[in-house]
Write a structure and sequence with these properties.
The complex is a heterodimer of chains A (165) and B (178).
Chain A: H1 2-6, H2 11-146, H3 149-164
Chain B: H1 5-16, H2 21-40, H3 44-48, H4 54-67, H5 72-83, H6 90-105, E1 107-114, H7 120-134, E2 138-145, E3 152-157, E4 160-165, H8 166-177
Parallel strand pairs in B: 1-2
Antiparallel strand pairs in B: 1-3, 3-4
Helix pairs in contact in B: 1-6, 2-5, 2-6, 4-5
């Protein structure tokens, strides 16, 4: 006690201060510390919920991404199939058009060949006929000039012999 | 009374037959000449025209026949045809007479065409040929000339034609080459 007094500490004041501190502590605990803790708890809880939500969102997002990726993959596959099909169809159409065009070209060629052949044959026949006619015309002219009575009589005799044979 | 050309022809053939085939031939030739003159002078419409008297038409027939030196018997036949309004059928009568001559005497006509007239030997050969192709007992040759034939001979008898002319031969060649 004396020692405390030598140090300048009044025991009664000390006790009063301890009591004051205790009362202050109780008041603070009741009116300040508890609401702060509650608020901290709430905040902690809210943060936890937010984190959970974030995790959930992240999970959902991952799922969505996965789904999206799957869908994209599927879409890509479908698109590839469609493109392949379209390409095949286009190829088929191209081939068909080419075949048709080739056939048409062939038929046009055949018709043209036939036309040319017909015209050539007609021309050939015409030339042949006219050449024949010309030859006959010349022979007739020459015979008319060269024929005399003696030759005529001979031709009659010859014809009569041939008829009787 | 309307008589067919065949009836008229038969009646006339029977009328001249006792005088022999020569008389029949002569009648056919003479009637043929009158028919040809009627055709050439385009007298068919004149003979058909009722405004001309029969006497006028007969006068014309006689004139033509006289100019052709046709016998009076054939002239009378032509006048008879005129009387029975058959003068324009004179050609048909001639044809029927030819058919009857062929039936009764086996004499047929053949037509021969050459560039120049036939020689006697050629005529004989043609006569045989006509008999052969027309299947006639006797043949009468009707000669024609045509310089366009160029040479050779064309003979027709009945419904057959033998064309051995140079013109025909040239045509055959032309047919072959064209």
């Amino acid at each position: 006690m004396e020692a405390l007094q030598k140090l300048g500490i009044d025991f009664k004041v000390l006790i009063a201060q301890i009591i004051n501190f205790g009362i202050l502590f109780l008041i603070l605990k009741h009116y300040l510390y508890r609401p702060i803790l509650n608020a901290l708890d709430k905040r902690k809880k809210r943060i936890k919920e937010s984190l959970e939500k974030a995790a959930e969102i992240e999970k959902r997002s991952a799922e969505s991404e996965k789904e999206y990726n799957n869908k994209m993959l599927k879409a890509n596959q479908e698109a590839t199939v469609i493109i392949d099909k379209a390409r095949l169809e286009a190829e088929k159409t191209r081939k068909s058009i080419l075949d048709k065009a080739e056939k048409e070209a062939e038929s046009v060629k055949i018709a043209a060949d036939k036309d040319i052949a017909d015209k050539r044959n007609a021309l050939y026949a015409d030339v042949k006929k006219n050449a024949g006619k010309l030859a006959i015309f010349i022979v007739t002219k020459v015979l008319k000039q060269e024929m005399n009575e003696e030759l005529c009589q001979k031709s009659v005799d010859k014809a009569l012999k041939e008829i009787n044979v | 009374m309307q008589r067919s050309p065949k009836t008229i022809a038969l009646a006339y053939i029977n009328h001249v037959k006792p005088n022999g085939i020569e008389a029949v031939n002569s009648a056919i030739t003479e009637l043929g000449l009158i028919a040809e003159s009627v055709r050439c002078l385009k007298l068919a419409s004149f003979f058909k025209n009722p405004s001309f008297t029969f006497e006028k038409k007969e006068e014309w027939i006689r004139k033509i026949a006289g100019a052709l030196k046709i016998s009076s018997e054939t002239q009378n036949l032509a006048v008879t045809l005129l009387k029975i309004n058959q003068i324009n059928s004179i050609n048909k009568v001639v044809t029927c007479m030819k058919e009857l001559r062929l039936e009764q005497f086996g004499v047929g006509e053949g037509c021969v065409t050459t560039v120049t007239p036939l020689t006697t030997e050629q005529k004989d050969a043609v006569n045989d040929l006509i008999k052969k192709i027309g299947k006639f007992k006797e043949a009468i040759i009707i000669e024609n000339t045509n310089p366009n034939l160029l040479g050779g001979i064309a003979v027709s008898a009945g419904d057959r034609l033998v064309d051995a002319t140079i013109k025909r031969q040239l045509k055959n060649i032309l047919k072959l080459v064209s």
